[in-house]
Amino acid sequence: NAGVTQTPKFRILKIGQSMTLQCAQDMNHNYMYWYRQDPGMGLKLIYYSVGAGITDKGEVPNGYNVSRSTTEDFPLRLELAAPSQTSVYFCASSYSMGQGEYEQYFGPGTRLTVT
Amino acid sequence: KQEVTQIPAALSVPEGENLVLNCSFTDSAIYNLQWFRQDPGKGLTSLLLIQSSQREQTSGRLNASLDKSSGRSTLYIAASQPGDSATYLCAVRATTSGTYKYIFGTGTRLKVLA
Fold first, then answer.
1. Buried/exposed code over A39-74 (b: 16+ C-beta within 10 A; e: otherwise)
2. What are the residues of chain A with a beta carbon less than 8 Å away from any beta carbon of chain B?
3. pLDDT(A101) > 90
């Protein structure tokens, strides 16, 4: 059971380039999330998904896109990278065991630098 | 708007000391509260999850309490060890900010001195 996996671990992008951050989970969780963590700040929610084919915006969605074609995968797409997108990106997943019962599991993160 | 605050931002204690980490939130309408541990350069590891109907949860040397009416949670660590050194974050799953969203605090960076 690998849990939540993310690739790549590190990436350096030039301004204007695009890339996709990969996230996969093997726990059959229905909910998946993308967060970014900036130094000294808490985690900010970018996008989330409550099941295959269903996604919604979080607090900071501008400059990003997501898709959820399967339960396992939740890729995050960066279009036209900007220095403000330099951050550590975390993917997480959780399972609904009943109303209000959600425990999130996190991947190891992707450290992205845009120069 | 739900806001989560953790004070202090950093804490150093000698090994063996019992300690309390604090988490405050502004809106008591929450589904649950989760405490995480984050080691440098790593992802978050879930420590304890407290449902809105619960008052506390325990796991080993850790005990987390929840007081919704006052908007506070505490994480108690007994007999601290150098291996407990990490950043501890709390997050609330809030009903007023959307059904599926967690709001995170900025964390308390703990250092346990040998």
1. eeebbbbbbbbeebeebeebebbeebebbbeebbeb
2. 4, 31, 33, 35, 40-45, 48, 50, 56, 58-59, 90, 92, 99-109
3. no
For B:48-87, CB contacts with A below 8 A are 49, 51-52
Largest CA distance in chain A: 44
Q: How many C-beta neighbours within 10 Å does residue B1 have?
A: 8
Q: Under a CB-based contact definition with an 8 Å cutoff, are residues A54 and A68 in contact?
A: yes
- Predicted pLDDT of residue B97: 56
Give the bridge partners for B11, in sequence order: B110
pLDDT tens for B14-71 read 999 999 999 999 988 888 899 999 998 889 999 999 988 899 999 999 999 999 999 9
